[in-house]
Amino acid sequence: MTKLNICHLSEGIAGHDGQALGIIKTLKDAGFDVKATTIKVEWRIRPLRGVIRFISRKLTKRPNSLSINIISHCYKFIFPEDINVIISSGANLAPLNLALAKKYKLKNIHLSTPRDWDISDFTAYVTSSKVSNSSSNLVPDIIPNLFDPKECEKQGKRFIDENDIQDTQFSLLILGGDGIGYSYQREEWHEIVEKFINFCKSKATVPLFITSRRTPQNVEDYIKNNHNTDMSVLYHNEKTRGKFDHLLFISKYIFVTEDSSTMISEAISSGKKIVSIFPKTINAPNKYKNIIAKYENLGFIERSKIKNIDEFSFLEDADISEVVQRSIKNFQNSLSDRLKD
């Protein structure tokens, strides 16, 4: 078994960290002996971060001993010993990932839209769509995350037994918030919740809720004050992002607001087709629209306007666990091959 001592570079951005940790999970599931260390990375001079970001990116075009040392000094970090793989996510960290890999002759994996750097300077460069003919460019069907059908099933069955809810059916609403060009009006939040409740009544299912850091506090408060949330996972109430693998498994129907590719990818990774809810106001970049279109074309999601939530008819082929597991396995194999080269 190949041992990987991984350094995970982190800015502390939840979405980016989730993807990087998803890569680490992929490597563990592929059979590697993984030891991962996460280190916090910051700009060395924060007030000048715009200038430093520009310089670090431009220097990646010609990585040499001078440029990689300058790039390294653009950041504040403590690099651990005995590392043989570097993993990062988000464009800000790509220059440092590249520089450290060149300096210490390490393998490296990165996830983000490419900028000035050459993708072939990475052992594996993971994107949502093909951006290069380099063999380093890997394009998984599902954005890497910490969820998979088997683990969701394991946690879900345990939760069912512990709570004696074998005969109860559930529907799940996962809420994000404004971001990536998606903007919700106050009345739209109220409509999303009430349309979802109407859907639950029509299907005789118990409503469950998951909120996130970006979910407005007043929306979460509205849910708590008007609905039973004993089994829900509420971010502001718990002051953290709670575990919810089990909720994905026990829910027959899953709705997710469309403003987060991370939330959508996690829900898909449960092995169930989901409904993505979108507001009236969308000004998302093309790269994000392409992710949504990709998931729709693969049959992983169906999209719904807010007004249509309570009328939505789920198809009988909502169980996509075999397809999801096959996609996850294919990515495991592709990533493993890159690390073995």
Task: Provide an overview of this structure.
- With 341 residues, the chain is α/β, with parallel strands linked by helices.
- The protein folds into two domains: 3-139, Rossmann fold (3-Layer(aba) Sandwich); 149-324, Rossmann fold.
- The chain is built from twelve helices and 15 strands.
- It has helices at residues 14-29, 49-59, 65-72, 94-104, 149-163, 186-203, 217-226, 235-238, 245-250, 261-268, 286-297, 321-340, and strands spanning 3-10, 33-40, 42-43, 75-76, 85-89, 107-111, 124-126, 137-138, 170-174, 182-183, 206-210, 251-257, 274-278, 281-282, 301-305.
- The protein has a six-stranded parallel beta sheet, with helices on both faces. Strands 11-9-12-13-15 form a five-stranded parallel beta sheet, with helices on both faces. It has a two-stranded antiparallel sheet with strand order 3-4.
- Strand 12 (251-257), helix 10 and strand 13 form a beta-alpha-beta unit.
- The model has no long low-confidence stretch (mean pLDDT 95).
